[in-house]
Design a protein that fits this description.
about 500 residues, alpha+beta, Pnp Oxidase, Chain A, UbiD C-terminal domain-like, 2 domains, nine-stranded antiparallel β-sheet, five-stranded mixed β-sheet, about 30% helix, binds flavin mononucleotide
Length: about 500
Amino acid sequence: MFDDLRGFLNILKSQSELKEISGADWDLEIGAITELLAADASAPALLFDGIKGYSPGFRIATNLFATEQRSALVLRLPSELKGLDLVRAWREKIRGGIKPIDPIDAKDAPVKENIVEGDDVDLYRFPVPRWHEWDGGRYIGTGSMTITRDPDEKWVNLGTYRVMLHDRNTTSFYISVGRHAAIMREKYWSRGRPCPAAICLGQDPTLWAMSVATIPWGISEYGAAGWLRGGPVEVTSAQETGLPIPAAAEIVLEGEACPPSVEARDPIPAAAEIVLEGEAFPPSVEAREEGPFGEWMGYYVGHGKTGKRPNVPVFKVRRIYYRNDPILQGNPPFKPPIPFGVGEHILVSAAIWDAVEREVPDVRGVWVAKEASTWGALFTVISLRQRYPGHAKQAACVAAGCRAGAYMGRFYVVIDDDLDPSKMGDVLWALGTRCDPERSIDVIRETWSSEADPIISPERKGKGELLGSKALILACKPYPWYEDFPKVNRASPELLARVQEKWGSILRNG
Ligand SMILES: Cc1cc2nc3c(=O)[nH]c(=O)nc-3n(C[C@H](O)[C@H](O)[C@H](O)COP(=O)(O)O)c2cc1C
């Protein structure tokens, strides 16, 4: 098995799933090569070296989890499983809940092989790509993890939030509202303090998988990864902040997230009385424009016509730790169905399936279509055996209302149990033949969306109207005449088995 990025790449190399490329340009070429190869269902992982203008050994890895098999490897599931079977296996794994295993201090910390600090900090020593043509800059963090500690409860969060490079020691990480690091960051700021943080830029894929997964507040992704790996993650302390960083990480930036404005920084009296541990950083105030960036729904979104996000807080880098021959992990988003996380459609399908099954009987499968979005649940299909009037609509309502299904979700399609929700051919056939638009579609208005939603106009976004709508679609036999619905024109399994037995060898040999 593997417990760092290099170990994972070695496994891929031994399976001939790693392509090494020399001489590519960080400016657009690495992004475009990644996109070109990721479109193939059996896409190899890519390791770029000898990058234009950079010393050999300063490398970038992309397309790491582009196939279901590699996602299964990372999620510690059997790699021969595919589609719905993978979703079933993940549900089984998480049935008893996450039982965190705390990280331990490492004896050896390869991440500290090189330490650069103070005026020597220069992020341009790494071949940071400009991934897409209309990106507003170079993005050092796309497959990264931001590490922060809650000032009250002391637990450590890891979350993946994209990191733009602004100058030699300044980056920003863009965090949506409600994310755990955003909550922690604001707690520090409201007490007049910058938020100590570390950004890890290449790490054990299983740890990264937990960093992008929805893990409840209070449970550290370190503990979750320990549980998934079956043993603790080894960490070492960052010098100034004391934050635990993965001992076998490729590159880690240590520093502070500054409040974007004086208002955000000035302490509120009651909170200011709480004493924070650790050395105080000078409370500077700084914000930059962030983006535009080619995003996960397949568009450049953001604010107004420029697509830039104004006033994004910066992260000042005080120290860099990196291994010899460091590997920057790249997970840039592209137009779906190119995946950019790790098995996200498996995790989201499993979460919606769990929620629907808690309320509704006889669910046979739930699948979020990668073709609509590789992250989130824009198009969710539920297959079930209808048992009573209203059963199918009830399932659609739960999928549309549960946490995993509600966020930016648009379409919830219910099909019968003779069809496979993960086969878009089956789903379209059901829509074409078992759905009567006039009677089978309901629209729910004013639902949970996000500023990443391309269908919300710039005017509405400007007014903070981040609202969408959802369609509940019954593409299943109408329950009142279920038994009388036309028979499917398909040979029965018995007939097929008989023919197979009699003709199989001739048909196979052509
Ligand atoms: C490749 C990738 C990039 C992501 N980028 C961002 C981002 O820029 N900002 C953000 O808020 N969430 C982003 N996410 C989603 C979060 O990582 C995810 O919701 C995670 O669970 C957040 O962790 P938290 O709940 O600990 O805050 C990204 C996810 C992936 C897979």
